[in-house]
């Protein structure tokens, strides 16, 4: 996969590795159907690619079970995920792009980042621990990042917490969270929770706002006063 001429296959290989990593390590697990949804391709395409990835030693896959990365696969996936999340940091921290815009741009940039460029990015960005959405930048030693925080929906009224990230959400949802000021490192107080799955009222930057339970499940918070960066 090395080299500068980046083929279409290399890009789709990287997309698959990143998706399998995110689903296996940070999500509900990777199956053919979940991968098809995640990547926006047909289950038949996924099956074809998985056969190739199994043959090349990157993944293991029982016909009906979850897709698991091998050690070789994990190394390749961590490299892609690191570069994607460092690219997101570059776009937000250095270029001032809003967090709802950066994922698609970072997916293009990640393919162009070399080992030397990755080292320089880490240095210039101050060795960030997470991407702008609060997802951990995986370590080169392949260790599993610690899970940080709990969904805002689970916090009891009266508690004050710090936003540390969001689970993967569409850009329009990120835009709305940004407008509310529900960004990483923001302090939030839970005022009340309506019964039967009703809205959750929170106080953020001195303003009270009611957000849906669905949105409160997406926002990840920690009890600590300052979240990781």
Description of the structure:
- This protein folds into two domains: 1-144, Arc Repressor Mutant, subunit A (Orthogonal Bundle); 150-222, Ferrous iron transport protein A (FeoA) (SH3 type barrels, Roll), CATH 2.30.30.
- It starts with 7 loop residues before the first helix and ends in a 7-residue tail after the last strand.
- It is built from eight helices and eight strands.
- The chain is of the alpha+beta class and 229 residues long.
- Helix 1 (8-25) crosses helix 2.
- The protein is globular, with a radius of gyration of 19 Å.
- The strands form two sheets. A six-stranded antiparallel beta sheet has the order 3-8-4-5-6-7. Strands 1-2 form a two-stranded antiparallel sheet.
**CATH architecture identity of the largest domain:** Orthogonal Bundle
Number of domains: 2
Stretches where pLDDT is under 50 for at least 5 consecutive residues are 1-5
Mean pLDDT: 90
The rough form would be described as: globular
**Proportion of beta-strand residues:** 15-25%
Main β-sheet, in a few words?
A: 6 strands, antiparallel
Straight-line distance between termini:
31 Å
The CATH class of the largest domain is Mainly Alpha
- The string of secondary-structure elements, in order, is HHHEEHHHEEHEEEHE
How much helix, percentage-wise, in residues? Answer: 40-55%
